Amino acid sequence: KHYHRAIEIWKEVLDIDPYYHPVYYELATVYLENNDIQQANKIAKSGLKYDEFDKRLYYIIGQTSFRLAKLEEAIEALQEAIALDEDYKEAIVLLVEIYEENNQMEEMVEFLEEIKDLGGSDPVYEWKLAIGYQELEQYQKARESFEIAYFHLENDPAFLKDYGYFLIEDGSLEEGVKL
Asked: What is the C-alpha separation between 111 and 129, in angstroms, rounded?
């Protein structure tokens, strides 16, 4: 938790050898922990000049750009991180949150379907896919995704709330109220 000292040390390392690329991720992470979003974004972008295949730097750029309200930049960076590792759960979930928050349900559903086609399997993906289908009024697909997610998320209160409201809206009042 000695962020200022960590920042000094990582900056010294980069002054000595800017090609030592793992330091960029560490320095950007410390800036994030210190709530210096702008600097974390800048350092992560600098790190890409030395290692353009570090998915973690793209994730930090996506995370910081989203917090800086640069949505297109955030989406592009997260897509790049996922292109480098198609099962990068943190990046996938953040990208889905961005789509959901900006009411881009078609993009969210299309993206999650692609992830599933590539073999990505996570109950959170199914949950978010169900929400997307529900918003797009594809209720049968929403029901199927909710049922798949329920097997793994039956103890998650936020999931149960969403699933319960869906069931009530879909006419399964008793089952929805139970959830």
From this structure: 9
With b for 16 or more beta-carbon neighbours within 10 A and e for fewer, the 63-81 pattern comes to bbbbeeebeebbbebbebb
For 56-107, how does the pLDDT look when each residue is reduced to its tens digit (9 = 90+)? Answer: 999 999 999 999 999 999 999 999 999 999 989 999 999 999 999 999 999 9
Say if residues 145 and 129 touch (Cβ distance below 8 Å). yes
Place of tokens 């353009």: 52
3-state secondary structure of 166: helix
Amino acid at 111: F
pTM value is: 0.88
At how many degrees (to 10) do helices 22-33 and 37-48 cross?
170
* Of 38, 37, 46, 44, nearest in space to 18 by CA: 46
Which residues touch 28 (CB under 8 Å, ≥6 apart)? 40, 41, 43, 44, 47, 57, 60
Q: Which of 52-56, 120-124, 145-149 has the lowest mean pLDDT?
A: 120-124
Alpha carbon distance 173, 166 (integer Å): 10
Residue 120: predicted pLDDT: 81
Q: How far apart, in whole angstroms, are the C-alpha atoms of residue 135 and residue 113?
A: 15
Determine phi and psi for 50, rounding to 5 degrees.
-105, -20
How far is 36 from 42, CA to CA, in rounded Å? 10
Give the tokens for residue 87.
């099962």
